[in-house]
Structure to design on (197 residues):
């Protein structure tokens, strides 16, 4: 199967890191595209044109990142990451929150890149990121002991924020997440999927 992705996307990194955790990274052929440029290859198989997109060997396609991860877990390691989840809906909501935190961060970047920078609108998006990290920092009881799609998702999102907003001291603002991330980032799955800038 082929993972169509960019090497800067926190969403695609989540899939790549999960593949490492499941030990199936060699089964994913990585095809790098630039989703913001015209790409018939991507657009023909994913009308929304976003990465990551997974193309299966039978030609069918799966997107977005959470669905791709669900597919990989269901196919290769049913129940992986669920063992510590006492509340399934809380877990799924956390996954969605992490996705939307990346959405808000990415929206803020786009607004700041405009000429002139749309700082007020960007701050509105960044406030969402801060509220989300505060929520995760204060409510995620099993963060330090958990290995799940949610912890991979937080690591990928947090690392992306560190990279894209270096002027913010994220680890000082969110010390619990910062301490946890210092350990989590040494995992093979994180080391082998570092974001390329
Ligand atoms: N909800 C999607 C978000 C994916 C996403 O926004 N990917 C960005 C790259 S980081 C993209 O492809 N952007 C191109 C576009 O917006 O057209 C997922 O989880 O896969």
């Amino acid at each position: 199967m082929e993972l169509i992705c960019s090497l800067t996307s926190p969403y695609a990194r989540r899939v790549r890191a999960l593949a490492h955790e499941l030990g199936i990274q060699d089964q994913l052929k990585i095809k790098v595209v630039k989703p913001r440029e015209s790409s018939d290859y991507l657009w023909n198989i994913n009308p929304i044109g976003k990465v990551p997109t997974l193309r299966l060997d039978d030609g069918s396609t799966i997107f977005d990142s959470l669905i791709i991860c669900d597919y990989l877990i269901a196919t290769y390691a049913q129940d992986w990451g669920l063992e510590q989840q006492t509340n399934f809906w809380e877990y799924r909501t956390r996954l969605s929150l992490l996705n939307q935190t990346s959405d808000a961060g990415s929206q803020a970047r786009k607004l700041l890149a405009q000429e002139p920078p749309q700082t007020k609108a960007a701050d509105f998006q960044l406030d969402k990121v801060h509220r989300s990290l505060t929520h995760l920092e204060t409510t995620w009881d099993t963060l330090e002991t958990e290995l799940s799609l949610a912890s991979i998702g937080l690591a990928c999102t947090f690392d992306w924020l560190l990279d894209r907003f270096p002027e913010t001291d994220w680890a000082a603002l969110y010390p619990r997440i910062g301490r946890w991330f210092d350990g989590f980032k040494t995992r093979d799955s994180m080391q082998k999927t570092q974001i390329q800038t």
Summary: DSSP finds nine helices and four strands in the chain. The beta strands are 2-5, 29-32, 53-55, 61-62.
